[in-house]
Fold:
Amino acid sequence: MQSIKHRAFILLSVVALLLIMGSAAFAQDVQQMRVVWWGSQARHDRTIAVVEMYETEHPEVDIVYEFANFNDYWTLMNTQAAGGELACVMQQDYAYLSEWARNGLLMPLDSFVESGAIDLSAADDVYIAGGRTDGQLFGVSLGTNSQSIIIDVDAFEAAGVELPALDWTWDDFEAIALQLHESLGTWAYGSPSLGDDQIWTAMMVSLGLTPFNEDGTALGFSDDQPIIDHFSRLLRLQEAGAIMTPEEASQYATGPENSPIVVGAAAMQYQWSNQVVAIFAAAGGERHLRLWPMPRPATAVGAANYLKPSMFFSISSTCAMPDVAADFINFFTNSVEANAILAAERGVPISSTIRESLLPTLDATGIETFTFLETVAEFASPIFPPNPPGYNDIRNNVWIPLFHDPVLYGQIPVEEGVTLFRSEAEAILSAN
Amino acid sequence: MSEPSAVLTGLNPPETSASEPRAKRKSKDFKRNNAVGYLFISPWLIGFFLFAFIPIAISLYLAFTNYHLLRGGEWVGLDNFERMFTSDIRYGRSVIATFKYVLTAVPLRLIFALAVALLLNTKRHGVYWFRAAYYIPSVIGGSVAVAVMWRQLFGGDGRVNEGVINTFIGVLGFERVNWFGNPDTAIWTLILLAIWQFGSPMLIFLAGLRQIPAELYEAASIDGAHGWQKFIGVTLPLLTPIIFFNFIMQMIAGFRVFTQAFVITGGNPLDSTLFYALYLYRRAFNDFQMGYASAMAWVLLLIIAFFTLISFRLSKYWVFYETKEG
Amino acid sequence: MEQTLDFSAHKRVQRRAAISRTVFYYVGVTLLAVVMLYPVAWLVSSSLKPADEIWGSVTSLIPSAPRFENYAEGWQGFGGITFQIFFGNSFLHAGVGTIFTVVSSALVAYGFGRVKFRGSGIWFSIMLMTLMLPSQILMIPQYIIFNELGWINTFLPLLIPRLGGDVFFIFMIVQFIRGIPIELDEAALIDGCGKVGIFHRIILPQIVPALVTAAIFSFYWTWEDFLGPLVYLQNPELYTVALALRAYTDVGSINNWGAVFAMLTLSLVPVILIFVFFQRYLVEGIATTGLKG
Structure:
């Protein structure tokens, strides 16, 4: 009996389904466009408000939005890409942009920029360049970013250590860290790790090298000595107790509220500049935290800093209404009212007009980030070409688990780790 | 009777039990009844063919390709399997971590769940609330809450707070442990979590205990059996189908453990908690290597199937079925 | 275990032993309950703490002044979609899903557990195999199928497959059915019952504890599932609580932790209520159990 009921139910739902599909076919007067992003609550609220603002101005467009946190977002995007169901406008990341573009999932945006549909006249090229892959623009930056060392000025004063020069080297960093540790008794530097793959790429940038060769088939450098030197330095500093070992760092719970610099356990911390807002807010207004450019290797030929788009908006290649999508991106980039709501939450906006319009509204943290990026823009190295396919594989499966962690845990010597890294990374790249 | 275990082992085809004298005595009903059988299992059968069969077939095919989620791929024969067993260093680590987990968490969780179920299988006053209290941790599952909570319990934040577990250890006069930082101890935070969340096997044990007819205990009492003897003589044998079920299911779940490591340790440190399913998920959705991940999935299936098969074979020595014995 | 008091001899000694056993019992289960519930208490207390106390005095279980605004703030959700909608979606998903799952699983389990038919062993093995394959690997092919059917952005991909039952529960109920004395079936047969009648009159009352257990689990597993809703429910108006909570929290961003904890706490309430409600039937299961049929 029951199973007959089931059949009836299935039958009913199939009928219902056909009705739904049928009605959907007639409801094409209003154009539906999907927009999707990752983030947390603050970003969701602001972005949704801007979406609604756009809908009010364009009643003929109905925007269906989706959002998720960063990890879930990529699971979702991969699934949708495999199903050929990508949203028209999707948020993209520098680490993935070229892989997605090269696999034909994204639409080149150059024609929209030329026609003025996406107006980038108020943005300097250094803010746009990160969105290019193989000479074509695939993403419009939603905010600019650079790596920084957060410095606790009060701790430096208490230790009697002078603030470093803007072009400080890793040698300076080591001396300062030892001094801080000696006089304060705390760590000079907390987590996250200074052996991060992005610190490696920054190091390559300042040495005038690229992490990978032009066609992405091999590493772009032949001398491993800078990496060996850097990790030997980190091991020395760990030994001296000036920076945390990975074991010690893991005792700190995740979240900005628990980061060592916020709880007063360390005087310096590495962070991307668009993420410092959370740290500064968690630390509270009475602390004096400043942003400093990244240290350089002693043999550097340029700055270790480069300007990186924190995230992009891209148009998927399957989008049925690219003109609407382009107009939406344009609105997001150039509307003063929209950006007043967005409030640079995705990083410092690329349009100088927007930056100026935001300046009077900024709080102390906002001013610090804006000025830091203005400063960095003056001497920043050009951004290295987008990572080749396989970069995530190298980062996730080679750099961190086979080299970084075992070396900093003292399980294998630096030289051995570097050799393993090179051979495994080259094996992945050779597939390109 | 149709014996799933029998077919799995290949030892007792369904016919044999029917030829037993006892079974022969049974009525015509125990002849085959194909139409009724298929009618009853039809919901699953239809669902399987509509929604599972094709995806499973696709994943089997992908296991022999280098399919990349964005790039597509081509047939590579056994390359994926060769890579797994010869050149992928992390694969070996993930297998070791998973076996460590299965061998510790599964038996500990089962023993704990059974012990507590026995403790709660009573008509004592208020036991109702204790049952609810013990079950609550299990509904927290693998949410963000567990990640944050577990870190607080074991980790603290380095300077300000010690973490409750370490405070306790300190009070007892032992050396404090850096639970999440040490590759030897990190996995124990997840094992302890599995034990703490013993609610689901406990509930199944409880339901099993409820099903044991009270008459049997009364009969045992008349025979002069006391608590422990009743447990050995009545409870344990009658509970064996449920123990067996819980064991199989916990073992399968143990091999597939994912969420806890995904939200709490992320596989760290030094890949000591990089469980098989977590590594597979990362390969599939972070590295886009769906072909390789599918191959990993099928090897996992073979591993689980192997241990399940052994368990089914061994089960006939200790699992007591009413349908067989009458 | 059942405690039976035997009043035949040494009444007083026995009663004293029984009392001390009772005390011992309650001390034991209470201590265990404290250990079990401490982390939960921590979660609830964090949901009532002001922002600076959540991380400032982590180990303290008592907020200086309970801050119920956390709940009001959390309830707002995002972008005008409140948790009322997320909870509604979750109830639809978990409620309907559970009914589908339990009913179908019971039918299928009876087929495997008590009906003899050609191929049952092979089908059962195949069914168990589907449990051994990591589900993540099937996500994308399944998505493609449901996409072809036009089911994306509806609850259909999450509910319809449940009409096929759930392997875990099917296997579980099979094990319970196999524990039921076969004599009961035979008696019913003599009374003129067919297979369907046996299922309805004999088996069903006997497996009430198993069905209740399945219902509790099914509800909870569906309630906390986020991968399915993530992939199939793209419109935020359709998000479930578990999915909304994940979208709430992202690494490295400012989070209103008080509100997050408040909603986490709230998200546990239905599952706990379901348990408390259903566990009554779990206990009542005994009454119907017995050889009388």
Notes: The first helix of chain C runs from residue 11 to 46. The CA atoms of residues 208 and 285 of chain C lie 6 Å apart. The two ends of chain C are 24 Å apart (CA to CA). Chain C touches chain A through 41 residues (CB under 8 Å).
